[in-house]
Design brief:
- There is one protein chain.
- The protein is α/β, with parallel strands linked by helices.
- The protein has one domain (2-230): 3-Layer(aba) Sandwich (Rossmann fold).
- It contains 10 helices and 10 strands.
- The chain has helices spanning 40-47, 69-74, 92-99, 106-119, 121-125, 136-148, 166-181, 193-199, 217-222, 224-230, and strands at 2-11, 14-24, 29-33, 54-59, 62-63, 77-80, 154-158, 185-189, 202-207, 210-216.
- A 6-stranded mixed beta sheet has the order 6-7-8-3-9-10, sandwiched between helices. Strands 2-1-4-5 form a 4-stranded antiparallel beta sheet, with helices on one face.
- It is globular and about 50 Å long.
- Bound molecules: adenosine-5'-triphosphate and magnesium ion.
- The site of magnesium ion has 4 residues, from α1.
Length: 233
């Protein structure tokens, strides 16, 4: 579904990714792991058109060629960025409507919003409240649901569990598994390598902007180098 080929990104003169290639097949949940500054967020930003890159990104047979975020979204890729970026002044409902701004099927949009409120009653109860007044966990759920409002074919999650209490981390991961079960393909960045590998079908490990390992969840979990360096032995 997605093929990234020899991707390189620089911020000014400073390289952040060097010739990284990866693939995501339809229906998969793939994770991107690695230490701080490894280039994980940069990879997601390149795919969603937020940074310029060299190399090739091909989605369902079409090459992106730095076509920009709006075109990428139109093609069916949505990005849930690092750090729960909800619109704080807008209400919960307005945030969800923003996520659907490219859709024209108003009744279906309403139905999706109602379904999310049924799934997360706390968001439903707060539908008319400014998103900035929600708790961190509620804002994270809102950020995830807003991303899903475009009905993406592929969704990119950047550290969706960061800063959440353990029970909310579990709720977030359950929701992401649900999203995949309902047919959306997922590429997710996750700092917690163990959780990422437990959850995914396949994973890619980045270090200093380069791809160092990739494999199925069980290959990665049993790899001695990964166990030593990322899973605490
Ligand atoms: N806007 C920017 N301008 C300059 N350098 C940047 C910018 N964004 C990221 N970088 C640098 O690019 C490298 C990769 O950053 P990136 O955010 O992709 O890493 P990451 O793997 O997501 O890290 P983290 O786990 O901390 O989120 C880092 O060295 C970072 O300092
Ligand atoms: Mg990051």
């Amino acid at each position: 579904m997605l093929r990234v080929d020899g991707l390189s990104v620089k911020y000014g003169a400073v390289p952040a990714l060097h010739g990284v290639s990866l693939e995501v097949n339809e229906g998969e949940l793939v994770t991107l792991i690695g230490a701080n500054g490894a280039g994980k967020s940069t990879m997601l930003k390149a795919i969603s058109g937020l940074v310029k890159y060299e190399g090739e990104i091909i989605f369902n047979g079409e090459s992106f060629d730095n076509c920009g975020p709006r075109n990428v979204l139109t093609m069916g890729i949505a990005h849930c960025p690092e750090g729960r970026r909800v619109f704080p002044q807008l209400t919960v409902t307005e945030n969800l409507l923003m996520g659907a701004y490219l859709r024209h099927d108003r009744n279906e949009v309403r139905r999706d919003i109602d379904a999310f409120f049924e799934r997360f009653p706390r968001l439903g109860e707060r539908r008319l409240q400014a998103a900035g007044t929600l708790s961190g966990g509620e804002q994270q759920m809102l950020a995830i649901t807003r991303t899903m409002m475009s009905r993406p074919k592929l969704v990119l999650f950047d550290e969706p569990s960061l800063g959440l209490a353990p029970n909310l981390v579990e709720q977030t991961f359950r929701f992401i598994l649900d999203i995949r079960a309902k047919g959306t393909t997922v590429l997710m960045v996750e700092q917690n390598a163990f959780a990422a590998l437990e959850l995914c079908d396949r994973s890619y490990l980045l270090a200093s902007g380069k791809l160092v390992q990739h494999g199925t969840s069980s290959q990665m979990l049993s790899n001695p180098h990964i166990r030593e360096a990322y899973l605490g032995g």
